[in-house]
Each structure stands twice: as C-alpha cells, then as structure tokens.
Specification:
By secondary structure, the protein is α+β, with helices and mostly antiparallel strands. It contains seven helices and eleven strands.
C-alpha cells in the first residue's frame, strides 16, 4: 500500500490536474487512517497515522514543513496531532482531523445567537497553534492599528478586511466559525474545553474592568486543548470568515462559512482579557463590524487540506 500511495503522489506531482489520481489517493488514505473522522483517526495506530501525515506533508510542500507529532489531553479528550510550519510567516499550525460535533450552547438557552443546536461536520484543516503573533505578522506586509506592542504578543487592531488581505498574501485564510468551534471543543462537550468551570490556567479573561492587555500565548503553552491549541478560548477574540447573523437558523452544517448578501457584521470567537469568562465558553459567539480596529480582536490562521 505504501508503494501505491507514493505512485499516486508522484502522478499528482507530475500532473497536478490529475483528478483521478487525487481521488484514488484520498480513498486509499481513508482506508489507512481516516483523517476525516476524528473518532476513527484516534483509533488508528500511530504507524497508520504517520503514513497519512506523510501524504499530507507531501501535499503541503513547499509552503509548509513538517515539525513532528505530539499527544495532547484536556477535558477528558486526547489526540495525537501533527504540526507544520508555514515557511513564509513562521507560524506553527496543527493538523485538525475532521469530524462531527453539536454546534451551539445547550447550557445557556437564553443566548439565542447560539441556537438552534445542530450537528455539524467539518473537514480536516490546519489551524494556528496560537493567535497570530506580532513577529509573524511583521514578516509579511500588513496594515494594523495595534494597541499593544511586543513581538511575542498577538497582533491586534486589524480589521476583518486587513486580516484577510494579509492571509491572502501568505496563502492562508481565516477559519470558518464552524471550524473554530470544532477546534476549540477538540472532542469535548463541556462548557469550556477543559471542563465546566472557568480556569485562568487555560484562558485569559477579565471582569469588565477598564485595565486590560493581551498576554504572550507561550505563558499558557503548558495548558493547550486536546488539539494542542493555545489561548483559543481567551486572550483576545479572533476573527472568523463568517458574516454574523443573530442565530444559527439557515447556517451551513458542512463546516463552510456563512455568507450573507449584505451587512457589515462579522463573527468573532473566543474570550479576551477585558470580558468575563463566559466569553471563553466553546459555544460563545460575538460580533464586530468588519472595519473595526479593536485592541481585543486578532486572528488565528487556517489553511485547507485536500481530503
């Protein structure tokens, strides 16, 4: 099987438009270890996972380099996750397996923007280990009005449009809201990815006071979620690709972003160091105008994986 996988990879490298070879390769890889199903992926042995990861790494060249794998645990969930470096920016991204989850907030039914509940399926994708850092942002041209300054701090003060422009130049993208929530939950169903109660070891949050600032994500490096993602629930909120609507009625359930015909509101997800811990819940949703330059909003990069 290894030999056939390599034959197909060579065929695709020789002719990137060979749709039949791509289809055969995907089918073969799913038989080895199904990256499109988080539960099946976890049940595969490490050697089978490595074969699939090698194929993904081959696909991502030359823009990404493979860094290795590591096992992460949080909130009762655990995954073995592959990491890649985006060469142009230096960003570290984690390979998130696809899967299904129940979207929305079951525990706070009065929050109508988190309803109705629905099962959502996401495809595999890459997501930044941390919010995009200022030193990474500065490796490529970008426009910002950052409030806080420091190479190891997340970039803030970027509009939705400026974030997307930077990402296009880097060959990256914003995550969809569905991808963001799936990645935050990392297989958990609790209010927070670590459990039912707020915990400042996993996420920065505030009390609504006037004094606040972002923090270096590496301070929470020892407390990632089960996908190995750091400060996803708190530090600063993060832009998503979706247009904001005040409920999930009509929202896609296939992991793709929601795009409305008009309106300037965009989705932001995750808590920050100003707002209360309720914003750190995996289901929590917020919004901002696409042209706002807020000190409490940054971004986390994503990239697609053909699967």
């Amino acid at each position: 099987m290894d030999g056939r996988i390599r034959e197909l990879q060579y065929a695709i490298a020789t002719d990137p438009g060979d749709a039949e070879a791509r289809s055969q390769l995907r089918a073969l890889l799913r038989r080895v270890a199904d990256l499109g199903d988080r539960l099946a992926w976890n049940q595969a042995d490490s050697s089978s996972q490595d074969l699939v990861i090698e194929a993904v790494a081959y696909q991502l060249q030359p823009g990404f380099s493979f860094l290795g794998t590591e096992r992460y645990e949080a909130g009762g969930a655990a995954h073995r996750i592959a990491a890649f470096r985006h060469e142009a920016s230096g960003v570290r991204l984690h390979l998130i397996p696809g899967g299904r989850y129940e979207r929305g907030g079951r525990r706070e039914p009065h929050r109508t923007n988190e309803l109705p509940l629905a099962e959502v399926h996401t495809r595999p994708f890459l997501l930044g280990r941390t919010p995009l850092l200022q030193r990474e942002w500065e490796r490529l041209p970008g426009r910002d009005a950052r409030r806080f300054r420091g190479a190891e701090l997340p970039i803030d003060g970027v509009t939705w449009e400026d974030a997307r422009a930077w990402l296009r130049g880097a060959g990256l993208r914003l995550p969809s809201e569905a991808e963001w929530e799936f990645a935050c939950r990392a297989g958990t169903e609790s209010a927070f990815f670590w459990g039912e109660e707020p915990n400042s070891a996993y996420a920065w949050f505030g009390t609504g006071g006037a004094s606040w600032e972002t923090q270096p994500p590496e301070l929470h490096a020892a407390y990632p979620n089960a996908f190995g993602l750091v400060d996803l629930a708190g530090n600063l909120a993060e832009w998503c690709e979706d247009h904001y609507v005040g409920s999930y009625h009509g929202a896609p359930c296939d992991g793709t972003p929601r795009r409305e015909a008009k309106g300037d509101l965009r989705v932001v997800r995750g808590g920050d160091t100003y707002n209360s811990s309720s914003h750190c819940r995996s289901a929590s949703r917020n919004l901002a105008a696409r042209d706002v330059q807020a000190g409490g909003i940054g971004l986390r990069v994503a990239a697609s994986v053909e699967w």
